Amino acid sequence: MVEAEKIQLHRGLRDVYIDRTRTSFIDGREGKLLYRGYNIHDLAENSTFEEIVYLLLYGVLPTRAQLDQIDGELKASRKLPPEVSEVIRITKNAHPMDVLRTAISALSTTDSNIRDNSREAILRKGIRLTAAAPTIVATHARICAGKKPVEPNPELGHAGNFLYMHTGQVPHPEDASLMDKDFVLHAEHGINASAFAARVAASTEADLHCAITTGVAVLKGPAHGGAAESVMHMAEEIGSAENAAAYVQNRLKSGGRIVGFGHRVYKTTDPRAVHLREDARRLGERKGHPEWFAILQAVSNAMEPYAKRGICQNVDFWSGAIYHLLGIPTDLFICIFAMGRIPGWTAQVMEQAENNILLRPMLAYEGPMDLPYVPIEKRG
């Protein structure tokens, strides 16, 4: 038996490599993110989310014909089976992430090949789940608001259709484009907590619905996916740009942290955040509410001295204000993260399945040993 004190622990699995990947690359010191070898800066400014879905699932950027094909497959998979819509109604009082997790699990009951874990089956299911998630989220949001769910619009792209199903109105092209970019930026990010959880599920040879349900469940935790919501709450608490510096100073002095800053991997500005700052400014001006950008920019200015310590903006810092300005309720912010991440989780599951090994780490036991058993009548 190995003595616990002689075991080298890697708490949080920090710096532990569990496998090899071709899906994404992250350089936390340089602030670099690649999807399948392509820089996130190029993808965010030039590609649609549909292109990113194809890239992550098939490993290459699509031709026009390939893009048209996957776009058609996504559009054909948006509508929910009646029994899943009923599940959403039954669970309408739950948190949107709980409803999303439950509805995805319910979708498994409508898949005739649920046990098929071949690459082709995983691809097909990943596309269907990517398409269905926005319908689940929008349907639940409208039911909670006492409104009738809106049927998917086949004339709109993935992001624009989500906004349409949520509001009941065809979105402004710039709003749809901004939502699309947000999905692109959230699509994949290596072996983070939710992706690791999805791979653990896949390593047991569970089906894709199990793995994606697991990913959604883990993403719900505020230490992983809830920062955008917290940033918006912070901005509302600050109230005006003039209060930001004092808020930051008081928060840090009391041992708190500023949400939207710092990342487990990045020691410089998150490359995804770069694309959202200017978008948040323009959106605020267009919507007639520049105050949110002003507050967050003032927070950013106050946090500038901490950049030398590697405490920099992450992707959530600007996204919360963008969602708010797009009319999305705060409790849906994390669902948007999940909707964008399903292709990445699917790609991670495919990699796990291709060269599978059960993910089964160890714990160093430090408790008592060989205690004598005491019958219940003698326990006092």
How do the strands and helices of this protein lay out in sequence?
Elements: E1 24-27, E2 32-35, E3 38-39, H1 40-46, H2 49-58, H3 64-76, H4 82-90, H5 96-107, H6 119-144, H7 158-167, H8 173-186, H9 193-203, H10 208-219, H11 227-238, H12 244-253, H13 271-287, H14 291-302, H15 316-325, H16 333-354
Antiparallel strand pairs: 1-2, 2-3
Helix pairs in contact: 1-8, 2-3, 2-16, 3-6, 4-5, 5-6, 5-10, 6-7, 6-16, 7-8, 8-13, 8-16, 9-10, 9-16, 10-16, 11-15, 12-14, 13-14, 13-15
CATH superfamily of the largest domain: Citrate Synthase, domain 1
Structural class of the helices, strands and pairings?
Answer: mainly alpha
Distance between the termini: 32 Å
Provide the β-strand percentage band.
Answer: under 5%
The major sheet is characterized as:
3 strands, antiparallel
